From TrEMBL:
This enzyme's EC code(s): 1.15.1.1
Cofactor: Zn(2+); Cu cation
Protein name: Superoxide dismutase [Cu-Zn]
Residue stretches making up the Superoxide dismutase copper/zinc binding domain: 55-199
Organism: Cellulomonas phragmiteti
Primary enzyme class: oxidoreductase
Amino acid sequence: MSVAIAAAAALTACSTAAQQDDPAVAADEATTPAMTPQDDRLEVTLFDAANAQVGTVWLADDAGGLEIEVAVSGLEPGFHGFHLHAVGVCEPDSPDPADPANIGDFLSAGGHLGADEGDHGAHAGDLPSLLADSTGAARLTVRTDAVTLADLREGDGAAVMIHAGPDNFAHIPERYAPDGPDDVTLRTGDAGERVACGAVGG
Ligand SMILES: [Cu+2]
């Protein structure tokens, strides 16, 4: 019995010593901070128009793309348009830069990132919609290679935006719109008011 205990103790000591001496383990511990610098990831708080914190977005550069994870609560159950907008500000009752007479919550964040490079559904800031459950909570993790974290930080920054309603991605069947969707649909996806916003850079 005492021999077995001694052997087990020796094994434990041996494996601990081996881990400490293992150059691979030591190198990994030494380089982990350098491999995940803060400029490769960012945590963004989402606010509603009453300036209450309603969620968090985690942004992380990922080989050749950007991983976006969002956790939010307080939404109406159902689908909500979810986009990256062009200006890194989250201001209630603010003017739309494209139409300053138009005042509304988070409008100063501008249109979708990359909106001038195509129709909605092909904007760099277009993302899959959030699905809020019966409690109003939503979680989503998505990866895009249309932007990097550096793109979001540069210039005017960017805003992570959640809308009140579902996004149609400007996908309107021809039987409903023989001439194609109108300019508003092609620009916005008709996701409605802006109900939560998180600013990046700017
Ligand atoms: Cu939007």
